[in-house]
Amino acid sequence: MKTKCLFMICSLLLLLAACQSNEASETKFKKVTLPDDVPEYVQDSDFKKIDWDKKATMLVNGIIGNEGKSGVIGADTPSLDGQKWMWHLWGVDDPSKSTMTVVGYHKETETVHQILTDGWTTSLGAKQNGADAHIPTSVKIPKPGEWAILLYVDNKLFDQLVYDINE
Which of 50, 107, 125, 134 lies in disulfide reach of 146, CB 3.0 to 4.6 Å? Predict the structure, then answer.
């Protein structure tokens, strides 16, 4: 009888500990509220994949991004008042038939923003600076801070760029 009681108490304690651990992990990431006009393929779960420790780095020709994937010329200049950014993507098979969607996520406020000034999505252009595709756009970053820029190519999550934008 004592063994059964001891087993039940231990089981309940383990269950309680597991529940508390699960609640703690859920509070680390709350559900992201997406703007009404964001494309339907942008999912709340995409923001859980952000690796805030993987900051964009200086590549070649002034491009700041992720080696062999994506980068931007202009991300190192002030963008809060509007700026031109030249996007570069590697691994895009047919840029003339591809689109890129750009979604900004502000870490501190946990909010999603459109940062391209003329919509969420743009068509891609041909090769440039060693990248398979490029496109110049106008961007406006709404507030300073740490940003994750999620890039979607042809409606699929392609890459994330993490920048500190303070000007």
Answer: 107
